[in-house]
Amino acid sequence: MRLVVQGSAITYSHLSHIHQLCSTSVQFTQIAQHAYYLANQSVLPAVQQFCAEQHIDCAYVQDTQLMNKFSLCVMDMDSTLISIECIDEIADMVGIKPQVAAITERAMQGELDFAQSLRERVALLKGLQEADLMRVLSERLNLNPGAKEWIAACKKNNITTLLVSGGFTFFADRVKEMLGLDYAVSNTLEIIEGKLTGKVLGHIVDAQVKADQLVMLRDKLGLTSAQTIAIGDGANDLKMMAAAGVGIAYHAKPVVQTQATYALNYAGLDGVANLLTT
């Protein structure tokens, strides 16, 4: 395995201390501005603890897990590819963000059934103007750090990209265009005469649907599970991540971090490429 450490807080003194803990003659190799790796390492809890204390991402990566070994990446949208939870920001337009955000948080922590929680939240938005959705898009929707770089790395390595979200097509389709993703699957808000009805059209994209979408596209492309990556932050991403060869928890809830292959808490999405690069 190789030890990958990264994050904007990393310093040479950190690297020196980690090197001492590893008791190795192998030297760190720099792979990005704030990312380094040590080859031929075994897991050391002392290294993991030190990195956590210093706000540095640390991962022991299998030597076989390299960018050119993967052919499909499936990603969540809200709080993963983008910095906001769209439904919370929509709710803010009508002054009910605290109520909706509380439900969102419980769903992401895995305390509520996602489909039920989504219906409850969308019902609270009844009567909202479609123009308010456009305001969220234009004023509040930003890509997370490293998103463009990560997708560029995928394109360079011929990795097919799929956005699959419990959020809404109004935003997902635009994020797909912004990043040049291959596919996007999400929920559709019912809008009649320019106003939200408080309903979601069709089958809700929940945890199982996310996993199913990964499997369907994987099989369509003729890939194995080992050739797939899934990236998410909430409990409704766990099934999708479990179906992938590598599951990345990106600035994720604790329940997600404990079940992911690797976790990034400080690096941007470009950190995924650093995990898989030598």
Structural features, described:
- This protein has twelve helices and eleven strands.
- The chain has helices at residues 12-22, 45-53, 86-92, 97-108, 114-123, 130-139, 147-156, 169-179, 207-220, 238-243, 254-257, 270-275, and strands spanning 2-6, 29-32, 35-38, 57-61, 72-75, 160-168, 183-192, 195-201, 228-232, 246-250, 262-264.
- The chain is elongated.
- The mean pLDDT is 95.
List keywords for this structure.
278 residues; alpha/beta; Alpha-Beta Plaits; Rossmann fold; seven-stranded mixed beta sheet; four-stranded antiparallel beta sheet; elongated
Question: Looking across the biggest beta sheet, what order are the strands in?
Answer: 8-7-6-5-9-10-11
The average pLDDT score comes to 95
Helix content: 25-40%
Tell me the total number of β-strands. Answer: 11
Q: What overall form do the CA principal axes indicate?
A: elongated
Order of helices and strands: EHEEHEEHHHHHEHEEHEHEHEH
Distance between the termini: 12 Å
Low-confidence stretches: none
CATH architecture assignment of the largest domain: 3-Layer(aba) Sandwich
Rg of Cα set: 20 Å
Structural class: alpha/beta
- Within CATH, the superfamily of the largest domain carries the name HAD superfamily/HAD-like
Short description:
Belongs to the HAD-like hydrolase superfamily. SerB family. The protein has helices spanning 12-22, 45-53, 86-92, 97-108, 114-123, 130-139, 147-156, 169-179, 207-220, 238-243, 254-257, 270-275, and strands at residues 2-6, 29-32, 35-38, 57-61, 72-75, 160-168, 183-192, 195-201, 228-232, 246-250, 262-264.
